[in-house]
Amino acid sequence: MTQMNADRKIAISVKNLEKYFEGRKVLDGVTLDIYQGETFVIMGGTGCGKSTLLRHMSGAIQPDSGQVVFYDKDLTKISEEEHEQIKRRFGMSFQSSALLDYLTVEENVALPLLEHTDLDPKIINIIVTMKLSLVGMQGYEHLMPSMLSGGMKKRVGLARAIAMDPEVVFYDEPTAGLDPVVCAVVDKLILDLSKKLLLTSVVVTHNMESVFRIADRVAMLHEGRVLEVGPPEQIKNSSNAIVQQFINGDLVGPINIMEKNRREILN
Amino acid sequence: MNVLKKCEIIGKVILSWVQIAHDFLLLAGQTLYWIVIGPFKKKPVKAPAVFEQMVFMGIKSVVIVFFVTFFTGVVLAMQSAHQLKQMGAVIYVASLVSISICRELGPVLTALVIAGRIGAAITAEIGSMKVNEQLEALDTMGINPVRFLVVPKLIALFFMLPCLTVIGDLSGMMGGYLVGVHNLNINSHLYVQTAFKFLTLKDIYTGLSKSLIFALIIALVGAYQGIHTKGGAVGVGKATTISVVTSFIMIIVADCIVTGIYYFQNM
Q: How many Å from the N-terminal Cα to the C-terminal Cα in chain B?
């Protein structure tokens, strides 16, 4: 695996990332490499900093220290204009879908195209139909987001994320709040899109079935630190007690939620 | 120790106020930047978005502005008639109503009504977008939320509030006319003549210049509170309340300052 990775190009490299929120250390020296074309899953418990890490990679927030390098560009040091340009090479699927609720499905997907390109409305229409059919949502163009189910919203959000033909797509909890069958549908969609569009995908999730279904490589994040990185089989057979407790969902183990909550309240 | 603690609290309060002032001015600066520089960066404000806001803010507010200022005109005429009757100067009800409505009550009451209707709507809209990750989604798509959401609202209100103020002035004077002619038995022609006899162009533009400042206050306070909304539905409700209260106070303070400037200029 190491030999295989050595031949591949690194798309995103995170180096010693640190972030504090109101005095609390959320990311504590995170270092990761994400290779071009792979589906990389970041898993970890609630509040371990995985969404924060994703937001650093997408450029939504800046770290207190450390670097996020996208190919040869350090996202923490480039100008705002360069950042805007790079953001167009990213797509992001949000936990809450984050569709603009006063726009129709079609208008939501067309939004980045209308804002960033001078394409003819007819061409934009064709692209929107194409993207919606890629996620199996053709025929729903004129509906408002409030009329869609959670899974459908996620798929429209995905269509919007890939509207500008991005190189990297970030998924924040793509299967949260969905039933197991819809979860499987969304997972398959993530895999299909990655293959068809040759995407680099970074997925944040705590759904273990999803992790082992879609991941090329997995990183386990715990209390702002990366515990282990490797292919799913390696993580599954990890000797790390925290990783094992998390995968199996054991009540007893090194992760003590009650104790953690008590400490937080006392602090 | 106690003194130190108090100093710390006072320091924290001052720092938070400085932070608020900084963020508010930053938003005002960004808004101005996108209005002025946006077109040169091929990111002009989209006219349909501005017109849509103009309809919502202007045309749909006409009825409420009419009622508030009309009845204020009626009350003003009745109150002043009572006093002026004793001096046998009841005809001056006309000029008293027209001057006080055009210089003061028309612009201020219209602004207060619009702060309640539109300022609250701006905060609620942007605030709920914030808590539903929609602002972050815009940012990730490389669409600046200030340019996309705040600028069209500010431009629309900047043009519509003076228009609404003119409507408010006219309906206030109509209220006064109704009392003057039908209750105080002043000749209709004489009433109109007296109403406009003492009314100078300066009275009108003093009022309109105030409404331009009020428009900036309502739009920027509304947007600021929306962008800085924290928490869920409760957060949106809280931000909306703060937005309306802050706008009310700032409108009255700004009115006092502008009136003071005109007052001392004439001394």
A: 53
Q: Report residue B250 CA to chain centroid gap.
A: 9
Looking at 3.40.50.300, 3.90.1150.180, 3.90.226.10, 3.20.110.10, the CATH number of the domain A2-89+167-266 comes to 3.40.50.300
Closest by CA position to B123, among listed B5, B227, B232, B19: B227
> Domain-by-domain residue ranges, chain B?
52-265
Closest-approach residue (CA) in chain A for B135: A98
Inter-chain touch B137–A92, beta carbons under 8 Å: yes
What ipTM was assigned to the predicted interfaces of this complex? 0.83
User: Residues for chain B: how many in total?
Assistant: 267
CA distance B77 to chain A (A): 45
Average pLDDT of span B173-183 = 93
Q: Are B158 and B212 contacting, i.e. CB atoms less than 8 angstroms apart?
A: yes
Q: Domain boundaries in chain A?
A: 2-89+167-266, 96-165
Best mutation target among A57, A115, A116 (most B Cβ atoms within 10 Å) is A115
Nearest CA in chain B to A89: B141
pTM of the model: 0.85
The pair of three-digit structure tokens given for residue A91, joined into one six-digit string? 């797509």
CA gap B81, B192 in Å, rounded: 16
Q: Render pLDDT for A48-89 as a digit per residue (tens, 0 to 9).
A: 888 899 999 988 888 999 999 998 889 888 888 888 888 889
Residues of B in contact with A90 (CB under 8 A): 140
Q: Is B88 on the interface with A (CB under 8 A)?
A: no
